[in-house]
Every structure is written in structure tokens, then in C-alpha cells.
Amino acid sequence: MAMMTWMRRSSRYFLAVVVLTFIASLAYFGATQDRSSPTVVATINGEDVSAAAYDRAYRAAVEQYRQILRDRFSEELLRSLRVQDQVLERLVSERLMAQRAQAEGITNFSLFCNHVTIIPAIRAILDSPDLRLDGFVGPGHVSTVIGLRPYRFIAGDYRKPVVVSGFEPLDVLQGVYMILRQLRDGRSEVENQYSRVVREEGNPLALRAIAETMELRTTFEWRGLGFISQSALKLRDEFADWDAEVRYEIPGVRVADPKACQCGEVLKGVIKPWECKVFGTACTPDHPIGTCMVSSEGACAAYFNYGRHAGRRRAETAA
Ligand code: SF4
Predict the structure, then answer these.
(1) CATH of the domain at 170
(2) What's the gap in Å between 12 CA and the centre of ligand 1?
(3) What's the CA-to-centroid distance between 300 and ligand 1, angstroms?
(4) What is the pLDDT along the chain (319 residues), one digit of tens a residue?
(5) Residues 98, 145 share a domain
(6) Last residue of a domain, one of 103, 136, 167
């Protein structure tokens, strides 16, 4: 289990290894596009990629784009994203990796994919009837990869300002200031405070690597929010030989939030972190009870470390 825990924490680095393996493989092996046979779209070191496999992969990719882009989806956008080329390159890359791993007898690595997609979670929060949030500070690190476009529905459909911000104190302050300015002016737009790092289109190389190696899970359980459909990623079937979920019996452990934890309400703005009964007493960054206290950027951890209310809560409890 220690190994699995380490792998879970390190899954992003495993992905990097896989992607690097793709690139390295291209240096060793060759692939040709077969235009002579309508049933074969490419031949890699004598191994065919069938037109049927290509069609399945293409339809799945189009469906994935349809779900992500929703009302912005169009055939023209598909063409501009070169989805046909992307799918073919992915199929070739997968074969190259499988051949390379087989040739070198590599069987001693597995990936346990636990990546989540934040947009469905934000949509679930926005759809909550008790929502009490006026705007969103968009996460700078995530946005470095996904860009600004995925947030447009928040400003367009829900009329809430979004400002993607960095993590330095001045970044956060300026991000909050930009949200307040939008609220004052009656605007709801997606603005980029972190423009020194985040680009409108995100990181196309990283997005492509994700699309090539992963696909959406049907559903995923978020602590504090429950099950949200298509809100996480898993490895594509083509990587089953290295997928820890396929290779090993991974117990479906569910970690329910303790009853005392009000992380869901904190995330929706219904209560402030210090209003939780166990804030700063039973729940601290050293002994977190809920997810909002686990990582330093979690709302409860930030309030505990920097908020003036942390002291007040402690004083109330001590009295
Ligand atoms: S203080 Fe701890 S228990 Fe309370 S909402 Fe925050 S994370 Fe949950």
C-alpha cells in the first residue's frame, strides 16, 4: 500500500515518464501512414492500425470535445483543432509505446490515475440552490494548462466574475481587487491577472498529452461535494497493461467526511471556515479533518494560517 500511496501522489510524474517515452520511442521506431488500404490507417513496424479502431477513437474524441465545449462545439472548431490528426497521432504513439515496452520487457511500472477536472465541480457548486459566492478566483496553476476558455460559462451562463490569479500575495490581492471592480461595474467576465504565465489557450502540448493518454471517468466522488459525473480522468484502455486499476485489486475505499466537517458549505460560501465548529480545534493543518484544511491553498487552511478569525475562534473555544 505504501507503494500505491506513493504512486498516487506521483501520478503526474508517471504521466511525464509516459509522455517522454512517446517522444523517445519516435526516435527509435518508425511509423508510416498507409493510404493504399481503406481498412488500415497506419502501419507501425509492421503492425496495422485498423480503420475501425481509428473510427472508434475519433468518435470518442469528438464526443469528449462535445462534452467539454458544449454550446461552443462545432465542426469548424474540430477542424481547427486538427482532431483527426490528433487521434491518428495518439493511436500511433500508443502502439509505439506498447511495442517499445514489449521489446524492452518493461512490465514493472504502473500508473494510478487520480486526476480531476475542475469545471464539472465548479458547475455543481454553481448549481447549488444555497450558493452564496459572488465571484471566483481561478486557480493559476490549473489555468496554466487549461487556459481561460473553460471558465467562460461561469461569466456567460451564471453571470459571475472570474479572475485567474497567481499565488503570490500581491497576485491574490490584485485578483480580489479585479473581482470587486467587476462587481462594482456590474460586469461578469473572465479576466487574467496571471498573464505572465497563463495564456488564453493554455498549454496545447500538455492538453494534447492528456487527451492522448486519458479519458473522462463516468463519475467521481469529491469529498464535500459527492459524486459528480465526468469530473475525473482515467487511463485510456490502450494503456491497460500499465493501468494499476486493471493490474491490481485496488479496494474501492470511500473516505466519508466526518459529520462535523462542513467543507461543502465552505466551498459554496454558505459559511466562513471559522464558523465550522471544529475549526482550529479538532481540525488544524497538522491534523486536518476535512479536505479544505489539507492543502495550504484550501480555504480552511488559508483562514487558519492567515485569517484574523483564526485567533477569534481559538479565543472563543478557550473561553
Ligand atoms: S475546519 Fe475542518 S472540519 Fe471544518 S469545514 Fe474546514 S476542513 Fe471541514
Answers:
(1) 3.40.50.11750
(2) 27
(3) 6
(4) 333 333 334 333 333 333 333 333 333 334 455 445 578 888 888 888 888 888 888 888 888 777 767 777 888 888 888 888 888 887 888 778 777 877 888 788 888 888 888 888 899 899 999 999 999 999 999 999 999 999 999 999 999 999 999 988 899 999 999 999 999 999 999 999 999 999 999 998 888 888 888 899 998 888 777 888 889 999 888 888 889 999 998 777 777 778 889 998 999 999 999 999 999 899 999 999 988 998 887 899 988 888 765 566 556 656 6
(5) no
(6) 103
Neighbour count for residue 88 (Cβ, 10 Å): 19
Ligand 1 atom nearest the C-alpha of 299 is 6
How many domains is the chain built from? Answer: 3
Residues with CB under 6 A from ligand 1: 260-263, 266, 273, 276, 278-279, 283, 289-290, 292-293, 300
Mutate which of 292, 297, 304, 314 for ligand 1 pocket (most atoms within 8 A of beta carbon): 292
* Helical ranges in the chain per DSSP H: 2-9, 11-28, 51-69, 75-80, 83-103, 118-126, 140-146, 152-156, 169-185, 204-213, 244-247, 263-268, 299-306, 308-318
CA–CA gap between residue 82 and residue 211 (Å, rounded): 13
**Residue of minimum CA distance from atom 6 in ligand 1:** 300
25 within domain boundaries: yes
Quote the ligand 1 centre to 111 CA distance (angstroms).
Answer: 31
In which region does residue 226 sit, left (phi positive, over 0), alpha (psi from -120 to 50) or beta (all else)?
Answer: left
Range of the domain at 271: 263-318
Distance in angstroms (rounded) separating the CA atoms of residues 213 and 303: 37
